[in-house]
Amino acid sequence: MADSPGGMSRDPRRGFAGPLRFEANIEDCEVVGKIPEELDGAFYRVGAEWNRPPMFADDGILNADGYVSMFRFRRGKVDYRGKWVKTERFLKERAAGRALYGYYRNPYTDDPSVRDPDNPAARTVSNTATLVHAGKLFTLKEDGLPYRIDPVTLDTHGTWDFEGGWKSQTFTAHPKIDPLTGEMVAFGYEATGLASDDLWIYTIDPSGRVRNEIRIKVPYVSVVHDMALTHRHVVLPFGGYVTSLERLEAGKIHWGWDASKPSYIGVLPREGSAKDVRWFKGPERCMMHTFNAYSEGNKVILYAPFYDSNFFPFFPPVDGSPWQPEKARAFIRKITLDLDSPSDHYQEEILWPMEVSDLGKVDPRVLTLDSRYLYTGYFDPERPFDRDLIVGTPPARVTNCYGRFDVKTGKIDTYFAGPVHSLQECTFIPVGRGEEGRGYLIGVASNLAELRSELVIADAQRLAEGDIARVLLPFRISAQVHGMWAEASELDLS
Ligand code: V55
Ligand code: FE
After folding, report:
1. What are phi and psi of 88, to 5 degrees?
2. Stretch 179-196: mean pLDDT, rounded?
3. How far is CA 5 from the centre of its chain?
4. Which residues line ligand 1 (CB under 6 A)?
5. pTM (2 d.p.)
6. Is residue 148 part of a domain?
7. Is residue 83 part of a domain?
8. Residue nearest ligand 1's atom 7 by CA
9. Which atom of ligand 1 is nearest to the CA of 481?
10. Looking at residue 273, which CATH number applies to its domain?
11. How high is the pLDDT of residue 7?
């Protein structure tokens, strides 16, 4: 197998994506530039990493073990720590010394010693997002309950059901925290078991207690991966992916893609009930992540980087046709949901012509409100990039820029990471009081030439000026799915 000049193997399971089976702790990381002294808190991130080879070689990476890590900022220095999320599943597989769990979200494919299709949440890998609410840190995955994580040691302290108030078997990876009230709105889908059409929405007060529950039914069982929250409404987008008990009993991976299915966006008042849900329909779309939404009169405006079609090659089309990479493209869309309209269709506008990464953020202080700036990564082919470093079939996606997309003027302010770097999801760190957009934009970059990871830190109002600082790790860290910033005062950090 020929290696490229940078030592990058052409085998997509080696090189930068090769297995990592260690936990790590660095006090006072190497830094270039100057870490802002005003930052006192932690960047928590989680991703998927196989602790041992998967049972099935064609399984999806979304089924790999959760690995949680932190960059702790304090007095101009940064410490790094990374640990496995010690889920029930992780501990059982470690004791057995081999994979016991089969395909992504299909318990029928599990080893008989652990197989329990009546309790699918017990096999969650908790690999998708980190959450801080009411003084606690969690890792999340949409097929199970949150796992509670010690914010200093990153040790795992079991699952959390909000002191019994959370009744759904599942908890979304994308709850939303209202910056004006501190309340969290979250939901679980497949709430009553495998392929169930129950979706339950909860409001959790700032002290972490469940205050309200709304039980609704979905038009068809699909991935409801993210949501949006306005100061008045809950927004639930989904489309395309399908499952059924028959599919699962037949031993297939949880989702298939059905291009004939409409996309749906549900809207309901935050204090409403099942009869208040309005389902707006649209064409084939792969609706994974949102940026933000707001309510204006009887309209809800949603900004979201939805894909034209199926993003995931390992969730195959149900009609046996091949996965279509040219349709797996995300664009920044503005979607209008008019609650006064007799039409059951949503209106959609593509705001910028360029393809973007669908892992986007806004300043968390303007979540639920009419926000101006959207932040996400993209690949700018005009920038210098060493194309020999792109591996795999289909080729690994590269993100060499973060953009701040201004929805008021259309302007893009761009941060460029470097000619051998691929950026993971960005995170916005708010600074000061009130003013949207004031703060830092940070994220992990894979240095594909040196097989190391770097944390980049830029002034979010001066992205084109490049780094303020970079934290250089002496090793690769696994690809993040999602991460977030927490102030030291939100957690008991010492
Ligand atoms: C996503 C991620 C998941 C998952 C389902 O990004 C959807 C979308 C990391 O796990 O299980
Ligand atoms: Fe996500």
Report:
1. -55, -40
2. 98
3. 33
4. 48, 62, 127-128, 141-142, 225, 288, 481
5. 0.97
6. yes
7. no
8. 225
9. 9
10. 2.120.10.30
11. 43
